[in-house]
Amino acid sequence: MTSPKYAVYLPHYGPFGDPFVLADLAVLAEESGWDGVFLWDHIVHDPGSGDPTVDAWLALTLIAERTSRITLGPMITPLPRRRPWKVAREAATLDVISGGRLVLGTGLGDLEDYVTFAEPRAGSERVERLLEGIELLRRFWSGERVSFHGIRYSVSDVVMQPRPVRGSVPIWMAGGHTNANALARAADVDGVAAIRYPWDLDRMMEPWELAEIVSTVSEHRGGDMDGYDVIAIGRSSAGAAGVAHVAEFAEVGMTWWWETIHQDKDDLEATRARIGAGPPRP
Question: Quick one: CATH architecture of 5-276?
Fold first, then answer.
């Protein structure tokens, strides 16, 4: 069994809505022994608040330039509100800049980013855009000539270069513990970011809930979980108690722990202290 990895999961708005702050936190994470840094990806989180919000992809580019080891990526980029060819080009470029350290986290996304800007929000259309978008990303990253005519997208005779450093970019998909359809979709990509719904910082995912997700995804994959990532999103304290808490998730199949930072719970000083204390590694 491969040892779990540990990442810091950061918002990109409010006190964290500054690309240089995010890059400084990423550098601190790398220096403190964390394995990854991931950013939320909203156009707006609270449309009427006026909170400073940075573009996650541009902030990740700065992070890629200032770090050398950590895995990085957005989680989640709502693919149904993006053009897949633009995402493919951005992802391949960022992967090259980072030396092959990018992971693309994706999913349907929150409705606020659709409603605010009058994007298509019907569930069926978003699912169709998500699935066709993932297929297009993989084809574009292959470096081969692509023609595709689906329900939502049509592409004619295009080759995209450069390819990602590893030939492709791993895709992780958000999956709620009670959403069977989302877990079935997640089983067809490279990893599942397990989220407990409703999202509640005071009642985050329990190990038994993650175990149910692992069981469901494994069933969809015919029992083949080799090389497949299972991401547990939660909060832990520094020290022995936090290590013990996270170890319970590792016992049921977690491969990544994401330490969740949130502007409603953590100011910058507390965030720097938590990151600087290092991951909850045994």
Answer: Alpha-Beta Barrel (3.20)
End-to-end CA distance of the chain: 15
What pLDDT digit, counting tens, does each position of 51-97 carry?
999 999 999 999 999 999 999 999 999 999 999 999 999 999 999 99
Q: What is the value of pTM for the model shown?
A: 0.96
Contacts of range 15-18, beta carbons closer than 8 Å, 24 or more positions apart: 15/263, 15/267, 15/268, 16/261, 16/263, 16/268, 16/271, 17/51, 17/52, 17/53, 17/54, 18/52, 18/54
- Backbone dihedral angles phi then psi of residue 274, each to the nearest 5 degrees: -65, -45
- What are the residues whose beta carbons fall under 8 Å from the beta carbon of 200, sequence distance 6 or more? none
The count of C-alpha atoms lying within 13 angstroms of the C-alpha of 60, restricted to the half-sphere facing its C-beta, is 32
Tokens at residue 7, please?
């990442």
CA distance 1 to 21: 36
Instruction: Please name the residue that has the structure tokens 């990303």.
Output: 137
